[in-house]
Amino acid sequence: MADAQEEGEGPRCVGCGGRVKTLFVQYSPGNIRLMKCDNCKAVADPYIECEFMIILIDLILHKTRAYRHILFNKLSIGSSVDKVIGDALVGNIIFMIMLFLGLRFILKLSFDITRYREVLFAVIISSYFKLFLFTMMVWEFPSSVIFIVEMFVLSSNVVALRVVLQFPKAHCFGVCLMAHAAKCLTEIWILRTP
Ligand SMILES: [Zn+2]
Fold first, then answer.
1. What is the pLDDT of residues 159-168, one digit of tens each?
2. Distance, CA 165 to ligand 1 centroid (Å)?
3. I need a labelling partner for 38 at 20 to 30 A (CA). Which of 29, 45, 157, 192 fits?
């Protein structure tokens, strides 16, 4: 994967941000040698051999090196990340539109900007499980895990809505389910459209 260097693309050294030809050389499965950066002479990307948790901690600690690893050496390699992020964005917009339409017209929530802002905040906070979905674009997991994470997001959205709006649980579940279904259908539709 590291030799997929094209014009203006390709891996970078996480230390200095300079371009490198390749991040590692693989001799046999599981037996790799990390390459050094020509510019700063340090190992170009030591995160390649790191556990996911270590990278996550460095991301939380705002370490530039970890962000370079994710943005240049992980996300830019291989699959069309633009499409993944684009799909997620469209899906999330549909989700929010359906959620607000459901609240306004099915649950008859009066239009009050502060209240809707609270709903938006609650939904964002309760969707933190999606962080795991984001990491799944980088580290591959079986699709059943994605489904389980979606279910977690759905149930935590319901709890958050119930706390903010004090509507019955079934009502919150109905609206959230509708919004999630619309989002999933949109994503499936986008994926099937060439
Ligand atoms: Zn360097």
1. 888 887 888 8
2. 52
3. 29
